[in-house]
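Sat 14:20. Reprocessing the chain from the morning session after the first attempt stalled halfway. Input below, unchanged.
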Amino acid sequence: MKTAVSLPNDVFRAAERHARRARKSRSQLYAEALSEYLSRHAPDEVTEAMNHVIDQLKEPTDPFVTAAARQVLERSEWQKCRRARSGGRICPSPQARPRASDDPW
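Finished this time. C-alpha cells:
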C-alpha cells in the first residue's frame, strides 16, 4: 500500500540517517516503526480478546490463582507502562526489558 505523509524536517532527516545506518529502505523503516507503535498502543485490544476467550471458557475461577495472577501482572513492565502511558512515559523496547534471570521471583 502506498501512502503519503507529512513529517517535520528534523524527523525526516533523522529517519533518513537511521535508515542508511541500518541499511533499510525508508519504507521498511517506517513500516517497522509504525508496527512497533501500534503494538505498544493496542494492549487494550489484546486484553479485550483475552477476556472474550476467558468468558467463552466459563470455567470457575480459583481465588488463589486470580490473586497470584493479579500480583504478577501488577509487577510486570507491561502493566507499569500501561499505567504510566497517561503520564507520557515511553515503554522500553523488548531489548531493554530485564532478562528472566533478573526477575526477583
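DSSP finds five helices and no strands in the chain.
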